[in-house]
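TA notes. Do not distribute before section.
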Amino acid sequence: MNNHQGNQERFSLHGQWSSRMTFILAVTGSAIGLGNIWKFPYIAGDNGGGAFVLIYLICIFVIGFPIMVSEIMIGRKGRRNPITSMKILGLEEQGSENWKWVGLIGLMAGFIILSYYSVIAGWTLHYFKMSLLGELSNLNSESVQTIFGELTGSAITQLMYHTAFMAITVAIIAKGIKDGLERAVKLMMPGLLFILIVLLFYSILQGDFMAGVNFLLMPDFTKITSQSVLAAMGQAFFTLSLGMGCIVMYGAYLPKNESIIGTTTTIIFCDTIIALLAGLVIFPIVFQFGLKPTDGPGLIFLTLPLAFNEITGGYIFSGLFFILLAFAAITSALSLLEPSVAWMIENKNYSRGKSALIIGVLIWLLGFLSIFSFNILSGFTFWKGTLFDNFDYLASNILLPLSGLLFTIFASWIMKKENSIEELSDVSRRVYKLWRFGARYIAPIGVILVFLNAIGII
């Protein structure tokens, strides 16, 4: 492909976002998932509160920001699924199509993550149903454990909700960009924010709000260690859905006249605010009743149901909280499914509906292994533990950092300077130089440190 052809504006085969705000809602929805809502507040509170938040904000702008800009740039320049975009741009910029493997790594990561993410998201649907039916009332610590144990111990129950969640996700993606993705994020993201604000007021009135504020935001620099800094770096990378091809894919639908730098800044701001609001919803309730802000899914499925039980009208709070989680899970799942579906449409010439169904069924089937990890295959362990543990470790700790690193290296080292300047033409030369320096040097070092920490080397 000659240089003139390479510099011509491509157009997405699937349409474009109708507005800048829709793109921001979609990417923010991708970034805000189940882990974002419980993990960031807990890590912040456990690592010095406001001191950690300050370090995290620094990390998100020196690591997360350059990588997100790089991935959006690649997506908008290539205008195809991550594999094809990297193949096209690799040929244009370096005369090699081998960069397509970077896109494949990202696609594989998203595929694997959605297979087990859908299972956990199914739990939120189950708990939402139980909240509505009053089945989370009159609980004690033993009954909460029993409810969770019955859920994870039943392959049938998990399969039912895993199926429902994947069916919702596939149905939305099958409708396309405007009728599917756009409508979903325009409904769910404002809905998510509205529910979060309602819950925040409820938490202020019913919980120990100042204890929650102190845990999450009061700076305690004595708790800052090298591990705290690495945790902040890791959270800055993982919270933004980087490395899975999602941002590249959504970037492919971004109109040429929209600012990549401006939209990235807004997305990061929204993601951080929502994570902090989630913490201010959760922890005042937890502390009000002397419960511990335990790590992991236990906070959502064990600690909080017990806390809801103690509050006047707690079943309402509980129902709203679990529908909030379901909304967050669906908007993330859409971004995980879209790249693989786009690849199928572009390379197999299948309709969007058929492509969504095929990819959705494959992911649904892979999810069986995660479901069985909690019951009939719980005794089958190797490497990092159960099949679920291994899927999570492979995708989160190896594939995501690797693809995120390579996307950034491509955008800052391989892509010709004049091409990246063209994509970022709306910002000053100083801002461009800051992005390029961050993407070339600081972000790669940060991702490598996150990777080494995740696999236990540092």
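Switch to the second chain here.
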Amino acid sequence: MRIGITIGLRSANESIWVNGIKQTAVFLAKLLQGSSKKHKVTLVNTTAVPITQSLPWDRHIYPTLQYEHVKEDLDVLIILGGAIHQSWLEELKSKGTKVVSYRCGSEFFYTMENMIFNKKVDVPPYYNVGFDQMWFIPQVWEANHYYLQTLHRLNESQVKRVPFVWDPMFITDKLKNQENKGEYRPKAGAKRLTCFEPNMNVVKTFIYPLLIAEEVYRKDPDLIKFMSVLNTQYLRQNSEFLGVINHLDIVKNKGKCYFENRHDTPWMLSKETDIVISHQMYNPLNNLTLEIAWLGYPLLHNSELCSDLGYFYEEFNIPQAAEKLLDILHNHDENWEEYRNRNRELIDVYLPTNQALISAYDDLLAGLYE
């Protein structure tokens, strides 16, 4: 099949680390290219931003074209990283092109918060009608599929839960010149904890990771060198934020907790991190989780879809998580290589080279014509 996967470039030299959506587009392209069906796969830009050599992927491996240059040459268009106008959808359908909406975000939560808190949005949501199918990665299925099924006027048979696809290609390339290629290595002494949660909405926030660290700090402060809480600089004038953090011993003790801006994930892991603590609601699998696990960093998380990776605690269970963190601090470095290797074996099910995963997507594509 001739397959397009949309990307919505916002700048000619846009970083691949801005969010996970363009990474997902490339990972899916890599998977489809690996099919024995010999699909022709193109990344399709739906904005007016020019396509240049500064893109963070090889255009010889992953051909990338503007929408107008490819719209006449598609059997399937997968709307993933860039939206299309209703008129474009209708034009594609009139030519026999199958159009799939591929959903990766926690859109119910984004929309709800934008309404309640009157947030300004650059582009208002656009609810196309006429998709052949809508595909949801498993971590956003529960909270979003009925919501978007109704808004986009789809029936139940048109809504599919599809496997997640991930590849270490971007993070390993970013770290290739770092010591040990940025992979985890034990270091003596107290440990540096990091929370990477974006704090852009209620789905992934710093509060529970910080409270987990606080529980351990109260028991044995000498185990923790410091904790970095990223993506929180904008909260420093918020009274609710200050009320929470100033109540904590790990914050009161100067030099033990830092509230910082966004940092490049590979740099932060390789330079300032020994242990990562994570928390989410209704997003129990993501790129960051797999990046950290792949590189062998001890990851304490509550993502039930990958509970076999890293160190898992249940939902909002701070005491359980604190016990797991103590175990990491005392014992992880004795088996760090075994831990990394086990993680990589488990992550194989998400890799675009996994034959079962390739077959699953071939079946989904064939299903568009049944």
